[in-house]
Amino acid sequence: MWLLRLAWALAVLGITAGSSPSPNPTAPPPDQASIFADLTPAELRAVRTFLMSRPELGLSPSHGGPLAKNTLFLVELLPPKKRLALRYLDQGGPRPQRQARAVVFFGAQAEPNVTEFAVGPLPRPSSYRPLRFKGGRAVPFAARPMTLLEYELLHRTLAEAMEPLYRLLRDSTGFWYHNCSRHCLTFSDIAPRGLASGERRSWLILQRFVEGFFLHPVGLEVLVDHRDPDPRRWAVQRLWYNGQYFSSPQELAERYERGTLAVARLAEPPFQQLFSSYEPRGRFATGTPTEVHGAKVCEPQGRRYRLRGNRLEYGGWSLAFRLRSSAGLQLFDLRFNGERLAYEVSVQEAIAFYGGHTPAAMQTKYMDAGWGMGSVTYELARGIDCPDTATYLDAHHFYDADGPVRFSHAICIFELPTGVPLRRHFDSDFRGGFHFYAGLEGQALVLRTTSTVYNYDYIWDFLLYPNGVMEAKVHATGYIHATFYTPQGRRYGSRVHSHVLGNLHTHLVHYKVDLDIAGTGNSFETMDVRFENISNPWSPGAREQAVASAQGAPRGGRWVLPLPQHPHNVGLLLAPGNGPDPAPVPRRYHLAVTRHHENEPTSSSIYAQNDPWEPLVSFEGFLRNNETIEDQDLVAWVTVGFLHVPHAEDIPNTATPGNAVGFFLRPFNFFDEDPSVASRSPVIVRPLDPPTFSQLEIQRWTPASPGPCIAPGPFTYNGTY
């Protein structure tokens, strides 16, 4: 193990090739990529049918009925172990058996728990076995993610509890909670759910149920204890209203009736041009047109990438991909010109830690894998979320459901003009002419999905560039997490509307990068640069400053991860011991490098959100084994992020410019030259008759004109799943 904790240093992480033999540098046939493909709807149904038929499991349908029952919560692919996959891909070994990961909530037992199973072989499963977390710990029932059924029961509990507050809510907001058909209140719940392991107490923020309700808190927050599997034992423990705490709804109602309560009265929201809506309002001062279409992406000679199943190819690149219901996009077997560069590159976790004056705000520490981050991949709008020309793919998730659910157009793939040349040069003759001009268009292939985790929308991208560079990037947009404005709250955010406080928070996103450069035997090193004083060899006595690297850069198999150089790109990383959790996610390191272990497949889990105090997956444990990382199979764990201080311009939504972070994977003396020289897209211009320049030779290997862009049909959108 080796970890690196650097604050925005000009440093470079290098993964160098070791002595392990290089795999056969030929792109695998597309059917080999299918060992990493997501489960098909038929496979998902087969797993459910098989497990439901096992009497010893005693499974019931997920929806309806009591909470104290055994249910199948999640089914997704259980990827093959790396050694088995590589034996199949590189050595002609047997094809790994296809298996599913199944998560079962055992709520009907005397000691409720959560158990994960490996189910297989697919497509006709006949056996299952329990999966163990590192250390053999069981999953506490209180750590399970929320379900639709639990939310329905929570709604009923809250509706009953809010009945004494009908007059207060009606008079102060024009909305209420119980017996409501219009002018209704809703709620947003926050997490972690309590202050210690085993608790399940959630603060609920009440909001007016209008378009963009996240920006309409009414000043009331309610703490509900819902740990018991029997909802009849659930109870409201505390309330916060307009800066004051109350022990019960009755106490708050009595204070209002006596006239001793400081009431926050809200104006009636308008029916049109609500501040939280997307409806246009106002005008640009220049008067330039916005009621016509802007620039569009087109493919004048057709697509330049190839998609075969879950195998994607573009220029020198080839990879397999999947969309995990639990955590999102995952790339496997990433190759350039047939040579593997990475076995896996994947999203692991997205977290957001908040500050605030209200109890809900100060408690909010979101860990989005616990909210089904990979399963909320709703339809991408053609021409907005992705270009009209993109390839759109459906996803099928089995998450808190009684069967696979189809999410149409959940993934898109497209070639993107970057708007800047990949490289170019104008060779001037310094007499008003030139010797030559050469340039290569800038393009990249984009693999994209989104996660709408309640208020926030994450746009997840992997970009492949022709020069062997890969970029992982995430944009944050959607509604800010807002609470009710009080003067005391201004220390923790900005007043973005009359009664709305945008709470200060930091976003941190974690990636796994399992690099295999010319084999699995890799080493880790850093390279820094410094100034040094040297004697000028051609002018005795003169001294100069020269830039030198702290370590040389010899030629060899090497890829680099440039570390963040600006504090905006890393957010607030916490020192060990800070915060309510020992280490549920790797939020303390910009970069950590560990040896690959089959029992360390992920850095977080779907259980970290509701039990961050005793996490089932402790990333700190990955780092404390003091293993050597020289000439070993290495995994780089990368954390990127940014600090978000909300402001009025976050209304109605946070905009993507300035709110994107990521990292690059770049070759470093790996190729003999820039591999994009293989592209047939450059243009070279040479004068034939200098100095008159009346005749030019234009060299290009593509058609002289791209031709017209074909207009697509009218915009359509379905949105169902």
Figure out the total of helices.
8
How many domains is the backbone divided into?
A: 3
CATH class of the largest domain: Mainly Beta
Rg? 28 Å
The CATH superfamily of the largest domain bears the name Copper amine oxidase, catalytic domain
- Contiguous runs where pLDDT drops below 50 for at least 5 residues: 1-13, 19-25, 579-584
The separation of the N and C termini measures: 43 Å
Shape from CA axes?
globular
CATH fold-level label of the largest domain: Beta-galactosidase, Chain A, domain 5
| CATH architecture term of the largest domain | Distorted Sandwich
Structural class based on helices, strands and sheet pairing = mainly beta
Mean of pLDDT? 90
Query: What share of the residues lie within helices?
Result: under 10%
Biggest sheet descriptor: 15 strands, antiparallel
The fraction of residues in strands falls at: 35-45%
Record field, number of beta strands: 37
Can you walk through the features of this model?
By secondary structure, the protein is mostly beta strands. It folds into three domains: 32-131, Nuclear Transport Factor 2, Chain: A (Roll); 148-258, Nuclear Transport Factor 2, Chain: A, CATH 3.10.450; 309-418 and 446-536 and 544-575 and 582-669, Beta-galactosidase, Chain A, domain 5. The chain is built from eight helices and 37 strands. It has a 15-stranded antiparallel beta sheet that branches. Strands 1, 13, 14, 15, 16, 17, 18, 29, 33 and 34 form a ten-stranded antiparallel beta sheet that branches. A hairpin with a 3-residue loop joins strand 15 (317-324) and strand 16 (328-336). The chain is globular, with a radius of gyration of 28 Å. The chain starts with a strand and ends in a 21-residue tail after the last strand.
